[in-house]
Amino acid sequence: MQPLMTRFRFAILVTIVGSLVLTAATPVLFAQGTQYAKGAVYHDRNGNQKRDPSEPGIPGVRVSNGRDVVQTDARGVYRLPVDDDTILFVIKPRGWRTPLNQDNLARFYYIHKPKGSPPLKYAGIAPTGSLPDSVDFALYPRQEPDRFKVVVFGDIQARTRQEVNYFAHDVVPELVGAEAAFSVHLGDGAFDDPSVFPALNRAIARIGIPWYNAPGNHDENYDVPSDGLALETFRSVYGPPYYSFEYGRVHFVVLDSTIYFGAKPESPRGEYIEGIDPKQMEWLRNDLALVPGGQLVVLLLHSPIVGVGEKVPFRNLPELFRIIEKHRGFSISAHRHFQGGRFITKEDGWEGPESHYHLVQATTCGSWWRGFPDPVGIPPGTMSDGTPKGYSIVSFDGPNYSVRYKVSRRPADYQMNIFAPDEVKAAEMANQEVLVNVFAGTDRSMVQLRLNDGPWVPMERVEREDPYLLSAKKAEANWNQELSKRYALPTPRPSSHIWRVKLPRDAPKGTHLIHVRTTDRFGQTFESYRVITVS
Fold it and tell me: Whole-structure pTM over 0.85, yes or no?
């Protein structure tokens, strides 16, 4: 019996030791040639971003390689396959924060690219060398309330340092000290020149809150043959082009919505389509598979998944719908340099139990910093639908949310423009129309008008060009070629958020007050006024 028991114990010992070696030693090459990364997500108690022996691992935290998503075990340990072009990242859980760099950019990832990027016009990823024995992610505990706010920018799109300065003066000062948990930029921080990233990062960092980034089509490296290398500079600065994180009771998903096909002689900037590629789609499926069905999911991406007043071809849209329609949520994009919101329904191929709200957000640069500079030297940037440039503030309260548009350097209640003549003849009152551009209005907004203390009259939503932008374009017709090239505003397009009504035909002669009131789908009410004289 003794020799048999000895052999049995030895066999158990070999099995245990072999298992320990297999678990602890990385990288590990298996029969199929797959390389595995191993590491831990841990509580960085002393804040040195290096795991010390006394610092415990955090169980149940999700970690990804851009395709697979795993959860850390009871010791906070994970293991994932990698190749020679992989970004590993932790999916920040509620109640924890990741490290921040000097520019308040979240540092939640590790780039594994042993040979680095190929030579490019704009520097990509430096060689990272061999995979470390352990790729660890530090987290720090913090309180995350159910109620919080997020600032969302779209298309700062700076071509030069001067345009970075426009943003720094136009937006940053009014957000310093803002009661927001973090901010997100929805892509196109650059305008074909990623060398502006460092200056832009330093400017946004002065707001004083963490911020995250989605890539846009103008953030890409154009001197590459395919999509796989199109975001080398972006990735070197901001990390993975798609990822997720949690804050409060919300699961945020940042997506890369551009598929690049490379530059051609006839198209130096390169050709691309809007959509989600198969690898990213697989990651999204894996990511959301671990999100409870009742949790609010917010998609943040550059390109609209559906059009507002136009058709938008978005590749793999039905597959995207099948993944996200199982969850309650909404999505925000930018890219189009106008503003509009719409509900995705069965008519769009949506099969979810309730419609999905998609906001195409107005851009922070407006119309690419166009227009004649104002007295402090900043162009107005009025967009093609008449919306002034700005950003959105999204407020969360548990599973509920609301969105409010904020025009840069204007009061928070500046939400519309009223268009009416300064003076109108009494005989012409029967045909006198008032137009109102409600910047963030949708087909679920209620807009009413009254004259003085008269009854409230509902206004009719129409698709029409913004009258103030039309007026500005008429004035530009007298400009010389040089002025037009430098300052001309965009060609007006039909806006999806204009309302109209005729004034009371029996208004007496004198000066009157037009009073407009709008209530949006979130129950937020805004008011505005304009004076008109009847002669």
Answer: yes
